[in-house]
Specification:
CATH superfamily of one domain: Tetratricopeptide repeat domain
Strand content: under 5%
Family: Belongs to the PPR family. P subfamily.
Radius of gyration: 27 Å
Shape: globular
Protein name: PROP1-like PPR domain-containing protein
InterPro entries: PPR_rpt, PROP1-like_PPR_dom, TPR-like_helical_dom_sf
CATH class of one domain: Mainly Alpha
Number of strands: 0
CATH topology of one domain: Serine Threonine Protein Phosphatase 5, Tetratricopeptide repeat
Keywords: Repeat
Largest sheet: none
């Protein structure tokens, strides 16, 4: 019997992604032609999801108008609000107001979400009076605020020192029966920390936990940053203690700020480092300053070094590119310190091409960059979505004797999974030394295949990990359960959920937890498969 030809199923997320790429990378004339050829039925959900991918603002507006002329489609409150939000974020307040006027003229339903978006962006553009008028208009038309509306309006008032009004709005919210969420409490604590009322702020920090509203990572980062700017260390210690108990971490810039504040106050930073075991001392780089110490002018190539250094110091980076190209053709070798500085400066100015040129020059001339140079380049490529180049960087970095480390390797593999690049992630994993192929990196790779929609490959990696005698951690089970449930493998997910519960019971009797497991739980024990 001949097998039936079965067309592959097309998921909505793939359709949305395809439309987003068309809008992002094509001219509007080309994009319009391609959109007309797509075999899809335009509805509010599809259009709204496309706009929420944040294509370039001009293309988003052209698409919004084009799809509005498609037969059998009409814009509703959801598509209008999303487009309105795009204009607000871009600072195009007049365009945002124009859209809002259109909604009113067409008789579309205007709810609390729309009003909240408008007052938020008006306050961002420093039109506080306009934000207040929007709130009053919403209340006047009988539109009931949500907890998000109340929180956004409170932030507007507190940020502009209208404390009595902000307090009155908070009391009104409580009287209406709406419970504060984490962001509401964060707005209150942010104001109190800014006003120097640390004890009152920490009292709220404690009471919100009693109300089973747990401060999240964003809240902790905001509060620690406020304390650092005020130079107060004792509130930082209490927040760090909470973060340690709940496996939360600071963003790297806030970590550096906290470290600097503690040192300036003569306080120990042991707790800060316990909360951030993944950040090693060698990774701490307080504002790298390019400083070249080479001064051996007896070497003929030292003139070239000196010239590159002068151009680099003056940030004439195009001239540095030209000079490097010429030196590469002549096979003239510079030194590791200078080349690493070139990579750092280019990455700091988002010049991916210049950083890659310096990397290729170092490969061709046999120069080993500093470890921080390779890491800066990897970070720059991730931010630029140039994932295929990352594999080459990591392979070269490993060959020169530098190590990513378990934390960075796991994070990089997971990030490639979020970008739907399982092949690149697998190559990174294969390039790791054996001692770094541990529960954290294996778990990251399992999550990669789940994110790509291939559950069988993910389970195959998990079984390979078990065969090597590596035991799963809590983070591993979180990845397995979340990934399998998302892909419809409910029975498999239930099996691993039971194993997870068993592991949680046994955890109370374990004297110590290996660092690899701590890193795995830190990265994956909460939310993993996107």
């Amino acid at each position: 019997m001949k097998p039936f030809d079965v067309e592959p199923k097309v998921y909505m997320r793939d359709t949305i992604s395809n439309i987003c790429k068309i809008l992002k990378y094509s001219t509007w004339e080309s994009a319009e032609t391609q959109l007309k050829q797509l075999p899809i039925r335009w509805d509010s959900f599809t259009v709204n999801q496309v706009l929420k991918t944040h294509p370039p603002m001009e293309k988003a507006w052209l698409f919004f108008n084009w799809v509005g002329k498609v037969k059998s489609f009409k814009h509703d409150q959801f598509t209008y609000t999303t487009m309105l939000d795009i204009f607000g974020e871009a600072g195009r307040v007049s365009s945002m107001k124009y859209l809002f006027q259109q909604m009113q003229e067409k008789g579309l339903k205007i709810d609390a979400v729309t009003y909240t978006s408008i007052l938020h962006w008006l306050s961002k553009s420093e039109d506080v009076d306009g934000a207040v008028e929007t709130w009053e208009e919403m209340r006047g038309k009988g539109c009931f605020p949500t907890v998000v509306s109340y929180t956004a309006y409170m932030k507007v008032l507190f940020d502009n020192q209208r404390v009595k009004e902000g307090t009155a709005v908070y009391k009104e919210m409580l009287q209406s029966g709406i419970s504060p969420n984490c962001h509401t409490y964060t707005v209150l604590m942010e104001y109190l920390f800014g006003a120097g009322k640390y004890e009152e702020a920490l009292e709220i920090f404690s009471k919100m936990q009693e109300a089973r509203v747990m401060p999240d990572k964003a809240a902790c980062n905001i509060l620690v940053e406020k304390c650092c700017k005020a130079g107060e260390t004792w509130p930082i210690i209490q927040i760090l203690q909470y973060m340690k108990e709940n496996h939360l971490v600071l963003r790297y810039p806030i970590f550096l700020l906290a470290l600097e504040t503690l040192k300036a106050a003569g306080e120990r930073d042991a707790l800060l480092r316990q909360v951030h075991p993944h950040i090693s001392v060698e990774c701490i780089d307080n504002g790298r300053v390019v400083e070249y110490k080479g001064n051996d002018f007896e070497d003929p190539s030292s003139l070239d070094r000196g010239l590159v250094w002068v151009l680099l110091k003056k940030l004439n980076l195009q001239a540095v590119d030209s000079l490097l190209t010429e030196l590469m053709d002549k096979n003239i070798k510079l030194d590791s310190e200078l080349m690493s500085s070139i990579v750092h400066v280019n990455c700091g100015h988002c010049r991916v091409g210049g950083a890659l040129l310096a990397f290729k020059y170092s490969v061709k001339t046999g120069i080993k960059l500093e470890r921080t140079g390779y890491l800066a380049l990897i970070g720059c490529l991730i931010r630029s979505n140039r994932f295929t180049d990352i594999v080459e960087i990591v392979v070269e970095m490993t060959s020169t004797g530098h190590s990513l480390g378990v934390y960075l390797a796991s994070l990089l593999i997971y990030r490639l999974g979020c970008a739907r690049r399982p092949t690149c992630a697998a190559k990174i994993f294969d390039s790791l030394p054996d001692d770094q192929k541990c529960v954290a990196t294996y778990t990251a790779l399992v999550g990669v295949y789940f994110a790509a929609g291939t559950a069988d490959k993910g389970l195959k990696i998990y079984k390979a990990m078990r065969k090597k005698g590596i035991y799963p951690s809590l983070g591993t089970y979180c990845v397995l359960v979340a990934g399998l449930e998302k892909l419809g493998r409910v029975s498999n997910a239930e099996t691993y959920r039971k194993e997870k519960k068993s592991l949680q019971k046994d955890a109370y009797f374990r004297e110590s937890i290996p660092m690899e497991e701590k890193i795995c739980d830190l990265l994956f024990a909460r939310d993993v498969v996107s």
